[in-house]
Backbone:
């Protein structure tokens, strides 16, 4: 029986290490590579051609769902999402994932997911894989799109903010603040979850506390130690932190 070749994609080093240690103890599984973000994953997938993809849902810059959109019909036959948020489970299966692992998971749960992945890989002919991936893409386009607007409560009523109208998003303790022109709206949500909801081709996370609309970025100014000052068209000035330097190409910096 040929070994399952697995690619691990997760922005958290400890999460990758835990998953790798589990997989290396499983017979008939080979770790083909590891990636810490969506851009790295796209490159590795084109080179490695793994059988199964372990894909984190929430990552800076590009969510796991966005990675699948970019892959199109070139995605592996078996995709297993990993997430710390159970709310993503339904959406994971909407895009034809083999399974999803809710962090922290144990070896028995991983073995169950591997069994389903192997069955998917062994049972499908190339034409079957192509058909399922085409169906997956159609489902993403038709029914699993990111929401176009976000509900916010203001003065006892619920209003809606269009996502393209958001200039930037900042963290505020257990809330996030949506900055829209001269107004701001506070909603109870984490930065990680709001980042996953934002269209990856329109928004980029530049620090632990800020997400910006790419169309609002006016200027970038280098600071010290690899950080950048980000000036928006609204006049707001934010900081791209050193740990998010890998997002510079998306802001036009080579």
Residues:
């Amino acid at each position: 029986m040929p070994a399952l070749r697995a690619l691990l994609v997760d922005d958290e080093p400890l999460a990758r290490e835990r998953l790798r240690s589990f997989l290396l103890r499983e017979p008939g599984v080979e770790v083909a590579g590891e990636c810490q973000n969506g851009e790295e994953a796209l490159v590795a997938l084109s080179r490695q051609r793994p059988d199964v993809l372990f894909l984190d849902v929430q990552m800076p810059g590009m969510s796991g769902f966005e990675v699948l959109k970019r892959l199109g019909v070139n995605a592996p036959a078996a995709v297993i999402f990993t997430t710390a948020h159970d709310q993503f489970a339904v959406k994971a299966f909407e895009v034809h994932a083999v399974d999803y692992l809710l962090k922290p998971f144990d070896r028995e749960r991983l073995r169950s997911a591997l069994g389903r992945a192997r069955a998917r890989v062994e049972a499908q002919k190339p034409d079957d894989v192509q058909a399922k991936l085409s169906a997956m893409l159609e489902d993403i386009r038709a029914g699993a799109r990111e929401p176009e607007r976000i509900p916010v409560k203001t003065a006892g009523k619920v209003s809606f903010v269009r996502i393209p109208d958001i200039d930037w998003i900042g963290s505020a303790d257990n809330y996030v603040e949506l900055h829209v022109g001269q107004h701001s709206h506070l909603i109870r949500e984490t930065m990680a979850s709001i980042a996953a909801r934002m269209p990856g081709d329109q928004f980029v996370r530049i620090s632990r506390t800020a997400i910006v609309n790419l169309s609002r970025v006016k200027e970038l100014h280098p600071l010290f130690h690899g950080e950048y000052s980000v000036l928006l068209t609204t006049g707001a000035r934010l900081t791209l932190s050193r740990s998010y330097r890998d997002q510079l190409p998306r802001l036009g910096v080579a």
